[in-house]
Each structure stands twice: as structure tokens, then as C-alpha cells.
Design goal:
Chain lengths: ~270, ~1000
């Protein structure tokens, strides 16, 4: 397809991670373009010219009612159908934090629903506090069987979480099924999420929603322990400073986006 | 002009009471607090069934929630269920009329998206179901107990209504239930003419009754201005009455408020020093403006060596050059009085306000970081109670939450801050909100550091609508709190609307559509337009064009209202701006134009209701003349010569748990401190994310490797001992903190924020002259320190009336100076953090100052003790020492650095151990020899400026010692074991595990 390297990054209406997300996508080899929610709604056909849609983190509509809810309502009317086609064609959708919450609210995760209603929810953290901390994450074994998609070559890694509503709530009847959609789990219980789930993907693996922020770990100096890491591995930091870091040595947040680029290359 | 909705009565009038109905929807989900909404709609326009469906779609998550829906009259039927479920009481709350209700605004927008007409109005609140469990948890009984508990924990009485009912008694009349909170105001009054042919007493009555906060001298100047024959003639020609209109008088009062004009910092001061209290003056000095002499004075002297200063003390924030394309700007504001009344709203509007200062810098700067520094009275101690003082524990909680929402919802990381407790802050909490930003130096060939407003540019108001919010905020913050403090001073911010405004302004800036802008803060339009008018020498606004939240505002209220989230722009490309605004869903109103007629006019209904000569408005205020006196504190009263009996290890653990020292992690984790992806050194570093870092480092430009260091210094505990020393220590602390993470010590730019108790002598303020003397001493100290460190001040702010006085009790804060700093680190890879890194490395202390137990936290806890002299900083040695340390850091010799501050050496080293897997083993003998003191408490816990602990690579000892000829002392080594050991002359002073240290350090914050 044309415009394989083109990624659309949603902005506006309280989304606030659009710049660093675009920056991270550029580092991963994409050609990112910011698009205001209002413009996407005006002209959803812009989706036809890109391979990757990213809903970045933030506080869309002030996080009022439920996180991501009003953004979902806004996108539902005009963009939903186009987006379904986009997904059916195998192109990629990534929702990060608030973007994940919006994908869930639109009923696009864990699997696209016909009526556009959500089947699971991202609720207030058990502590009822917003939390910004780096967490240990694992790609669940069940998810590692076939192609790993976004998490190819990544089993365990750390990323920051920054959310007040990241506790996945799953109704009784979906609890078994949801495990097949679990794309990433927290090593320890950070917010009370069902089965410590940190990310969900659809069965095809081209729609991913995750609470941790991959765009917040695209240089090694993002990591809270980097000043010690540098003493243990000065070579890595020298390469990064000189801009000569090979892709396989990139920080894991960036590697998730590099994996996405590789997935779009075969489209 | 689709966005310029001039129908100010868009909302309420269409929904007249007779035609409108009220629905109530409560959401049953997790727990027994039910989010509750009141929905007012017009039955003739909106179909109830469709509305109900839309409401459920928007408000209820069917995966785990259910809706209770009824008309407001019918909802008493819900009670039966609750009785069945065993609840004993139920309560409901909602916002009072006119209070910003962000949730409801979003719901109205969401309903609009589902196709429901915009004539539906929503109000949000909650229902609480209360059973035995709650009563037990709150330890209360009965209705009155619940009410008492609820105030400030479940609701804030100044902004919310709260009703509670006993389920075991007969249900209340449906009419008594909370209904829709509508603002109902009388029809606005026509502008009044205020006769000024008054005697002095009447003039002061006028000032007091109208809350003008103008002094007699100032009122007299206004009176004589209006008496002036020429002026009278001019007014006659313009069809204006001879005497001022209320609109004019209010504009003058706003413009001349202490908050806006900094009268005390600009006063002529007759300063005397005495050897001791009551003695004859030993030294006289007459100071023509502290601001010009010491603040601007320091910067003026440093200009030749600091080519990077692009705009200082001119714009809404100070701008320094960052690289060839970019400038960095920084500003810190205080929001003390609003936070004393409603801590959440006060802090929220504080942070959003300083964000707008950055947005309004140059031709628009993008906010990239926030800072927050709080000073509170400790809620863990018994504090004075008065009806007008909020409970001590509600203040820190509300303030913290306000900064959380303000920063997080705006996508601006909160990267640096401090919390300081002192009983004196019971008078007023201090809430310092800071924001830094980046702006292009040039765009489309236009210099973006300057404003380019020209005659005939339109005046555009962008963002929120105007209500009664914050009327008299500027004058109010210039007064001590008293019984008559107006409730309209309380405001809640709307970070979502402001985020849209920021996105819009940034987009407009990139397209080159803006010729000038400033924020609407204190004084509202009267200040923003009044100030921008000086660029072209004239402006006219038309109040008919100003969109209102609700009808019923008097003209003077519209002009001075401080309703939030508004910017004032100048532009000649209005149509393009309007089109962009429609995409960004921001309301933009064309309210007037700039001219060069030398005046500021306000029009209403085609008539002129205010016409003020700009020359008088901005130049007519006579400088104050004030008396200041200072004498040194008699240290003998502080020095008892006692030494503490406790063992050093116990003292260390108790100091770590001190409220001024303990971990701030609980606060920091609730702030998004990494959004924007710029973070390099965070508040907590290390593998365990526990090492408290001295300063933040961020990347202003993501594609570069040059880091921006952000730090602060705040040392009010020294104010009553020596304010001169206090100011030097604050500057030193800010710079030392920055240097410890890798900042180049020659690159610092500073901000000064003075918060002082009223320094003007009066009957109720008998030592006002001494407080002014303290201010003079602090300014002199600040000046000396800035010059010594070649660190210019680039912006600042002062808040001069931080007292509480209700006629019965008078409380004052300790004189407080916050120094905030930014600096550069050429390559972020050189930054270091505060946790010990590798076993066997060496631990040194670097010394450029004298320390003392007097004024220390050790002295506060263990009484007595102290020293006959105060700490001191060697102003020549310190900059040189920090310079050498910076060289050593760049060479990679230093793996860790941490400054000594509260709690002295032992606490600083404990903090380096806490975040680390390693431990420390030190011997104080060499330090004892250098200090010529052998008492362990002094060596472990004395406090003072100019001291830094460093960890040096084990194989770089020689190179390091060469670099630091005299000013270092070897203390010991880093160990592999997670322990902290210290000894003196073979005697073990401390030997404890990291776990013990961490446990003590993490439990000391007295609020959640």
C-alpha cells in the first residue's frame, strides 16, 4: 500500500501526549502527522492514506464521566465505520493510556462490538489515586506463541504508567475470554487490574491498547535508573549520544514502535 | 464570525422556570457514593424519553453501573430501597449557583454530540448512602455528627450545598430537596457616578465599602485628578460626567492594587539599623525602590556577562536564549489568599494562571514544566482555630489535589517542588506555582520575544466566559483575611477549557495570526487590556461584545471579573483566527480595538462608561514612603549551651521522619512528572525509584541533548534569625541543588518570590517597620548572592500581606523568599543522581561555608543546644567550588552528588543510602579536625550553606583531590552492605540498616 510509513497521531480535546508520541514514531521510522480530532471527524477519509493510527495519552475532555468516554462518543458517530474498515484491512491502531481507554469505550477492544458499546471498563485505580511510576511488565506466555506483533522480541521490560483509571474491570461472563486478549501484564499489582492486565489486543493483533507509555521510554536517559546503567554499560550510552544505537539495542518503548513499523512494512 | 456568540443570554433565559423540568439521575456502581446529576430541560423542545436514553448512554457504563432516573419530585421513591438495604442516612450535595462545574460542562458537550439540543443544562453532585459502617469509620453519630464530619471532607461549604436526611424519619418535602442550582441575579445596574467631593474619612469609607483597597493618599490623588480643571474640560468634551463612574474607579483600584503595582517594592524607604532593639540608629540609608535597587539592580550589573538575557522584568515571564532558534521562559506566581479560602480551587487556578503567564509571553510560549512549592502549618500539630480559618488538615490535601488536576489535565509535567512546614503558615498557606515554557525566537521573520500590537488591531477575548468569579481578587490578595472576605473570591479552574485554549493559541502562533497577547489574570480585562493599551497608547472595548456566563453583571463587574481560562489577543487577521477557533472549539470574541488616543475606554450600549487617561492610570500612582528598621537577633537567647541526650542514631531516624525532611513520594507520584517525554532527572531516581534528587533535568528540545535544570531554594527557618543570611542561603540552595545534578554553575537564571507579613506600620501591625527592615535585609542578601554567583534575576513576584486578622487573633507568616532557578547542562549524559552507586567508591564532603546548630532542625526537635554564631556562606569560595565540581562531573569522576540541607550531613548521607542498593561507612575525625569541633551533634546535624556530599570513583581519587586542593574532606567509602555507619574517634555513632532509614523517612509526611 501507499503511505506505509505514514502514522496519524490524534490531538486536541485534552489529549496531551501527541508531541512526544510523534517524536517517538519518527525515531521508529514512521512519518507521523498530528491531526486534530475535529479534523478527523470532518474528513475521516484521511485514514485511507496512513497505515497506523495512534490515540495518545492525555485527559481527553478532562477525564470527566469516565476516561475516554466523551472522546469515544465524539469519534463514534463519524469515524467508527471508517475505522472498522481500517482495522479490517490489517492496518494498525494503538491506544496509549487515555487512548486505550477511548478504544475500550468505543467497543473496539478487546474485540470490535457491533453496537459500539464497551464490554469491559478501565476503572479508578484501587488506591483511588493517580499514579506515576515505572513498572515491571511481562508479555504473557499465551501471547508469545505465534507472532508477537507489537511485542516481538520483548518478554520482560519496564515502562512508566501515569493514570488514575487503569484498573481493568471485566464482567463475569468475559473473564475467561479476556485472557486471550491480554497483551501485557504488570509483574506486581499496581492498580487492581483484572489478572494484572496492562494491555489488550484484538484477536488479529493489529489493535492494541496499553496503559503504560511506550513513547516515554525512547532514550535510555528516560529510565529512572539510567545514571547507574551508564556506569555498568558506558558503551550503550556512548552509542546513544552519537546517534549510533542499533534498533535491537533501543529502549523497549521505542522497540514497540519499531515493531509496529515492521508490521506496517508487510502491508 | 461563527464563534463570536454575542447572545449573552444563551443559557438561562431560554429555560424559564415555568417551562423547564428537572430530571435527576443517580449512578449506582461501585461503593455507596452515587454520582448524581440534575438535568434541566425544556419539555416543549426536548423529548424526555430521548433525553433519558442519551443521558444513560453518556453517564452510565452498563458493564458495571445502573441508572436511577426520576423527576426531581419523584426521586423520593428511591428511599424505600435504601431503607431496605439497611442504610440509616442519606445525603446529597451539588455546587452552589455560579461555581465552575467542569463535569457538567463536559456532559452538556457530550449530550450535544449525541444530538440533544444545547438547551439542556446539567449540574453535577453526589448522593451518599450512610450506614453503620460509615458512621463507625467517621466515628460520628446522628445527623449533626455527619454534618460536622462532612464539612471539608465530603464537601466545601463555600462552593457546595450539602443536605443530609435521616432515613428512619419521615422523608423530606420534595420541595426541600436540592434542585437545579441556577444563578439568579437582579437586573444589572447602570453605571453609577461616584461623587468625590468627600472629606478624608468619607474617602476612606468609600475605599473600604467598595473593597478598593486604596489608601487615603491614593484616594486623594484620585480626587485631585478628577478635580483638575483641564481634566474636567476634557471629560465634558467626551460627554463624561465630571466625577468618576464606578467602572473607572474600579479600574483604577485594580491597576493600583498592591498585587498589580507592587507598591511596597517600589516605595521610598527610610531604613535604619540598630545594634539592638530599642537602641539609637547606628546606620541610615534611604532606598528609592527595593525593586530597582536590588532586584533589577543585580540583573543590570550582570547583563554584560550574560548575553542570554532576552527579556527580563518586562513580559509575563523572563526569557533567556536557549539555542539559536529557541528561548526558554520561566515564571513563579503565588496564590495564597485563594488557597486559604478554598485550597483546591485556589491551587488549581494558581497553576492554570501561571500557565497562562507563559502562554502570554512574547508572541506565545508553550508550557513545558510546572513547579510547586507549598508552605503549610503542620496538620499534625495543634493549630489555632478560628471561624475564618479552614481546618489545618484540609489545606494541604486540597492544595495538592489542585496542583495535580491543574498539571495533569493540562499535560504539563510537575517536575520540581518543595513542601515546608512552619506554624507561622497558619496565617496563610503559601502556594507557589511555577511554569516554564519554550518559544521560537523568530517565526515568519518576526521576533517572537516581543509583542507587535499596532493601532487598529482588534482586541480578542479567548477562552472562558465572564461571571462573578474572583471579583476583587487582586485587591483581596492585598488585604489580610477578615470577616467580610467576599465569597466571590473563590474560584474553581477549568483545565480542560484551558488546554483547548493553549492548543489554539499555539496553532494561531504558528500560523502567525497573533500580533500580541497577554493573560487575563488579576484584574481581568481591566488589567490585560489596560496593560496592552500602553503598547499603542490606547484601547477601546465594548462590553456588549463580552460573552457572559449568566446575565445580571454590572458593567464594572464585567471589566474586573477574574473568570479563568481567558487570554487577551491582538490581531489584524480576525477571520482566520475565528475559523481556527471553530476547529479547536474555543470561544473567541472580538471586543474592541487598539488606538493611539492616549486613553482606555469602555463602551456599553453605545455609551462610554469609562474613559481613563493611560498616563494617569499607569503613572499617576504616587510612590509610598515607608519606615524600616532592623536590628540583629540576640543569639544569646537562642543558645543555651545544652547538648541533647538522645543517641545519634535515634536522632537521625527522628530527623528523617521530620515533616520538613521526610519523603515527598506520596505527593510526587500523584503528579504526572513525565508527560511531554522530556524527563532526564526525575524527583525519584535509582532502580528502586527512591533516591530523592536535588533538581529536575528536562530536555526543552526533544531532538537536542542540552538539558534544562530546574531547582529551588527555600529557607524560611532562618528568617527570624537573619533575613540577609536567609536570602543568601535560598540562592545558594537553589544553585547547589542544580549543580548536584550536573548544571553548569555559570548558567543560572533566577526568579524571586517574596511572601511577607504586612511590612507597613499601622495600629494593628505594630512591628510593620521591623518586617520592612527584614525585607530590606533579605533584598540586600539576594543582591549579593546573585552577583557572587553571576546569576541574574529574570522575573519575580511579591505577595506582601500574608497575615490573618479577624479582629480577635492576628497571625503572620515568617518572612519567606522562594528562589527558583533554571540552568543548563550541555549534555544530558553528564547528569548524575543522588543515590550511591558502587561499593568501594570514596565519599567526600565539599565545603564552602560554615554550619551551625542554631536554627537547625536538630535544634527544633531537641531544644537548647545551638551555637553562638550563625551559619555563613563564603561568597567567593562557593562559586569557585561549584565550578570545580562541575568540571569533575563532566570528567566523570563524580558518580553521585547530594547537597546538605535540612538535617545536615547525617540526613544527606542517609538519603544517598536510601535510594541505593549500597551503604556507607564514614568516619568524622577528619571533618572534626577541619571544623575544630569534636561534638558529634554538630558534625552530624548542623546545617549551613555551601556543603555537598560526593561519591568519587575509587580509581579517580588522585585526580579528584588534585582538582579540589583545600575544600574537601574525605569521609569514608561506599559499602556493598545496605547499612549506614558513622563513627567519631573510634566511637560508633550510627550503625543502622537502609530499611530502618527508609522506614523512618517514608512515614513523616503529615497529610495524604
Amino acid at each position: 500500500m501507499k503511505g506505509k510509513d505514514k502514522a496519524l497521531v490524534l490531538m486536541g480535546d485534552g489529549i496531551n501526549c501527541e508531541f512526544e508520541t510523534a517524536h517517538a514514531l519518527r525515531l521508529a521510522g514512521f512519518n507521523p502527522e498530528l491531526i486534530h480530532v475535529s479534523r478527523l471527524i470532518e474528513d475521516p477519509s484521511v485514514l485511507d492514506h496512513c497505515s497506523f493510527l495512534v490515540l495518545p495519552g492525555g485527559f481527553s475532555f478532562g477525564d470527566e464521566i469516565e476516561s475516554g468516554k466523551v472522546l469515544a462518543i465524539k469519534l463514534q458517530e463519524r469515524v467508527r465505520q471508517r475505522l472498522e474498515k481500517f482495522i479490517e484491512s490489517g492496518r494498525l491502531v494503538l491506544g496509549i493510556c487515555n487512548g486505550f481507554q477511548a478504544l475500550v469505550q468505543m467497543g473496539l477492544l478487546p474485540e470490535s462490538t457491533k453496537d459500539g458499546k464497551n464490554t469491559v471498563s478501565l476503572l479508578s485505580n484501587e488506591s483511588h489515586h493517580f499514579i506515576n511510576t515505572w513498572v515491571e511488565l511481562t508479555v504473557p506466555a499465551s501471547s508469545r506463541t505465534s507472532s508477537n506483533g507489537f511485542f516481538e522480541g520483548l518478554d520482560h521490560f519496564q515502562l512508566p504508567i501515569r493514570h488514575g483509571e487503569g484498573r481493568l474491570g471485566v464482567p463475569e461472563h468475559l473473564r475467561k475470554d479476556i485472557l486471550t486478549h491480554s497483551a501485557l501484564v504488570y509483574n506486581s499489582d499496581v492498580n487492581g487490574s483484572f489478572e494484572k492486565i496492562a494491555a489488550l489486543k484484538n484477536s488479529r493483533g493489529n489493535v492494541l491498547g496499553m496503559m503504560p507509555h511506550p513513547e516515554a521510554f525512547v532514550r535510555w536517559t528516560h529510565h529512572p535508573a539510567w545514571t547507574s546503567m551508564k556506569l555498568d554499560n558506558p558503551e550503550l550510552f556512548r552509542k546513544e549520544k552519537e546517534g549510533k544505537l542499533p534498533e535491537e539495542e533501543a529502549p523497549q518503548g521505542l522497540r514497540i514502535l519499531i515493531n509496529a513499523r515492521k508490521m506496517t512494512e508487510v502491508l | 464570525m461563527t464563534q463570536s456568540t454575542h447572545d449573552q443570554e444563551r443559557k438561562s433565559p431560554e429555560l424559564s422556570k415555568e417551562k423547564s423540568s428537572i430530571l435527576c439521575l443517580a449512578v449506582l456502581g461501585e461503593g455507596n457514593t452515587l454520582p448524581t446529576y440534575w438535568i434541566r430541560y425544556d419539555q416543549q423542545i426536548v423529548n424526555r424519553k430521548e433525553l433519558e436514553e442519551a443521558l444513560v448512554k453518556v453517564l452510565v457504563d452498563s458493564t458495571y453501573q445502573k441508572a436511577l432516573l426520576a423527576s426531581n419530585q419523584e426521586r423520593l421513591s428511591w428511599l424505600e430501597k435504601w431503607i431496605e438495604q439497611g442504610y440509616l442516612f442519606w445525603a446529597e450535595k451539588q455546587f452552589q449557583p455560579g461555581v465552575t462545574d467542569n463535569l457538567s460542562n463536559t456532559i452538556e458537550e457530550a449530550l450535544g454530540l449525541t444530538g440533544i439540543s444545547s438547551t439542556v443544562e446539567v449540574a453535577s453532585g453526589a448522593i451518599y448512602l450512610i450506614g453503620q459502617e460509615e458512621l463507625k469509620a467517621w466515628s460520628v453519630q446522628g445527623l449533626e455528627g455527619i454534618k460536622e464530619h462532612a464539612a471539608y471532607s465530603l464537601y466545601h461549604p463555600l462552593v457546595e450545598s450539602f443536605h443530609v436526611y435521616d432515613l428512619r424519619k419521615a422523608p423530606p418535602e420534595a420541595d426541600c430537596l436540592l434542585a437545579f442550582p441556577s444563578v439568579s441575579l437582579n437586573a444589572p445596574r447602570k453605571p453609577q457616578v461616584i461623587p468625590l467631593a468627600l472629606d478624608d474619612e468619607q474617602l476612606m469609607d468609600l475605599s473600604r465599602n467598595r473593597l478598593l483597597a486604596l489608601s487615603l493618599d491614593e484616594m486623594k490623588v484620585v480626587r485631585s485628578h478628577y478635580k483638575n480643571k483641564q481634566h474636567r474640560q476634557l471629560r465634558k468634551e467626551r460627554g463624561m460626567p465630571e466625577d468618576p463612574t464606578d467602572v473607572e474607579l474600579e479600574i483604577i483600584a485594580q491597576t493600583w492594587s498592591e498585587h498589580c503595582k507592587h507598591k511596597i517594592f517600589n516605595a521610598k524607604i527610610n531604613y535604619v539599623e540598630r545594634k539592638a532593639k530599642g537602641e539609637k540608629p547606628a546606620y541610615h540609608q534611604s532606598i528609592n525602590s527595593l525593586y530597582k535597587t536590588y532586584i533589577k539592580g543585580a540583573t543590570k550589573k550582570l547583563r554584560p556577562v550574560r548575553q542570554d538575557l532576552l527579556s527580563v522584568f518586562e513580559d509575563n515571564s523572563g526569557i533567556v536564549k536557549w539555542d539559536d532558534e529557541t528561548g526558554v521562559c520561566f515564571k513563579v506566581e503565588t496564590h495564597n489568599s485563594p488557597s486559604a479560602l478554598e485550597p483546591y480551587g485556589g491551587a488549581l487556578t494558581g497553576i492554570l494562571g501561571v500557565n497562562r503567564d507563559i502562554l502570554g509571553t512574547g508572541l506565545g510560549a508553550r508550557p513545558i514544566f510546572n513547579t510547586d512549592v507549598f508552605c503549610f502549618a503542620s496538620p499534625a500539630k495543634e493549630q489555632p482555630q478560628r471561624p475564618k480559618l479552614l481546618p489545618a488538615e484540609t489545606i494541604p490535601r486540597g492544595v495538592r489535589k489542585g496542583v495535580e488536576d491543574g498539571g495533569n489535565k493540562s499535560g504539563i509535567p510537575t517536575v520540581n517542588g518543595a513542601v515546608h512546614f512552619h506554624d507561622g503558615y497558619r496565617a496563610k498557606p503559601l502556594v507557589f506555582c511555577g511554569t516554564g515554557g519554550v518559544l521560537p525566537l523568530k517565526l515568519h521573520g518576526i521576533d517572537h520575544v516581543l509583542k507587535h500590537t499596532v493601532v487598529n488591531d482588534r482586541i480578542l477575548m479567548v477562552g472562558g466566559r465572564v461571571g462573578k468569579d474572583g471579583i476583587h481578587g487582586a485587591t483581596f490578595s492585598s488585604e489580610s483575611l477578615h470577616e467580610g472576605s467576599p465569597v466571590t473570591a473563590v474560584q474553581i479552574g477549568d483545565p480542560f477549557t484551558q488546554k483547548r485554549v493553549i492548543d489554539f493559541v499555539m496553532a494561531a502562533q504558528e500560523k502567525g495570526l497573533i500580533s500580541g497577547l497577554t493573560d487575563n489574570g488579576a484584574g481581568g480585562l481591566s488589567s490585560s487590556v489596560g496593560e496592552m493599551a500602553t503598547i499603542t497608547n490606547g484601547a477601546t472595548i465594548d462590553l456588549d461584545k463580552v460573552p457572559l456566563k449568566y446575565p445580571g453583571l454590572d458593567d464594572w463587574e464585567i471589566v474586573i471579573s477574574e473568570s479563568q481560562e481567558r487570554m487577551t489577543l491582538s490581531s489584524s487577521r480576525v477571520d482566520e483566527l475565528m475559523e481556527l477557533a471553530s476547529q479547536y472549539q474555543v470561544e473567541v470574541s472580538d471586543i474592541g480595538h487598539f488606538h493611539d488616543g492616549g486613553s482606555f475606554e469602555v463602551m456599553r450600549g453605545g455609551e462610554c462608561v469609562a474613559s481613563l487617561a493611560l498616563e494617569f492610570l499607569h503613572g499617576g500612582l504616587p510612590p509610598l514612603e515607608l519606615e524600616a528598621t532592623w536590628h540583629p537577633t540576640d543569639l544569646a537567647t537562642r543558645f543555651t549551651g545544652k547538648t541533647a541526650a538522645a543517641n545519634p542514631e535515634t536522632m537521625l531516624l527522628e530527623l528523617l521522619a521530620h515533616e520538613n525532611i521526610s519523603s515527598r513520594e506520596k505527593i510526587v507520584r500523584q503528579y504526572d512528572h513525565e508527560v511531554q517525554g522530556k524527563s532526564v532527572i526525575k524527583q525519584f531516581m535509582g532502580a528502586a525509584q527512591q533516591a530523592p534528587c536535588d533538581a529536575a533535568v528536562i530536555l526543552p528540545v526533544l531532538t537536542s541533548r542540552t538539558g534544562l535544570v530546574v531547582s529551588n531554594g527555600l529557607t524560611p527557618q532562618w528568617s527570624d534569625l537573619d533575613p540577609h543570611l536567609m536570602a543568601i542561603m535560598a540562592v545558594d540552595e537553589a544553585i547547589r541543588n542544580g549543580v548536584c545534578v550536573g548544571a553548569d554553575p555559570r548558567s543560572f537564571s533566577l526568579l524571586d518570590n517574596f511572601c511577607w507579613p504586612d511590612p507597613v506600620l499601622s495600629e494593628r501591625n505594630q512591628d510593620g517597620d521591623y518586617k520592612l527592615g527584614q525585607l530590606v535585609r533579605a533584598c540586600q542578601g539576594l543582591y549579593e548572592a546573585c552577583l557572587a554567583f553571576t546569576a541574574p534575576l529574570i522575573s519575580g513576584k511579591d505577595s506582601m500581606k500574608n497575615d490573618f486578622d479577624d479582629g480577635v487573633l492576628r497571625l503572620s507568616i515568617p518572612p519567606t523568599l522562594l528562589v527558583s532557578a533554571i540552568a543548563r547542562v550541555e549534555d544530558i549524559g553528564d547528569c548524575i543522581s543522588s543515590e550511591l552507586k558502587q561499593a568501594d567508591n570514596f565519599i567526600y564532603i565539599l565545603v564552602a561555608g560554615e554550619q551551625s546548630l542554631t536554627g537547625s532542625h536538630w535544634q527544633e526537635l531537641y531544644g537548647g543546644g545551638g551555637d553562638p554564631k550563625l551559619p555563613a556562606l563564603d561568597l567567593e569560595a562557593a562559586p569557585a567550588l561549584y565550578g570545580r565540581l562541575h568540571q569533575a562531573i563532566k570528567k566523570g569522576l563524580v558518580t553521585t552528588a547530594h547537597d546538605l540541607s535540612e538535617g545536615g550531613l547525617a540526613v544527606a548521607l542517609a538519603e544517598m543510602v536510601i535510594g541505593s542498593a549500597c551503604g556507607a561507612d564514614i568516619e568524622l575525625d577528619a571533618l572534626a579536625r577541619r571544623e575544630n569541633r569534636d561534638d558529634r551533634d554538630f558534625l552530624l546535624f548542623a546545617e549551613g550553606p555551601g556543603r555537598i556530599l560526593v561519591e568519587i570513583r575509587k580509581d579517580e581519587k588522585e585526580q579528584f583531590e588534585q582538582l579540589f586542593a583545600k575544600d574537601h574532606v574525605l569521609l569514608g567509602r561506599v559499602t556493598a552492605e545496605s547499612r549506614f555507619k558513622a563513627s567519631l574517634c573510634g566511637e560508633e555513632l550510627v550503625d543502622t540498616t537502609t530499611e530502618n532509614l527508609t522506614g523512618a523517612w517514608r512515614k513523616g509526611l503529615p497529610f495524604n
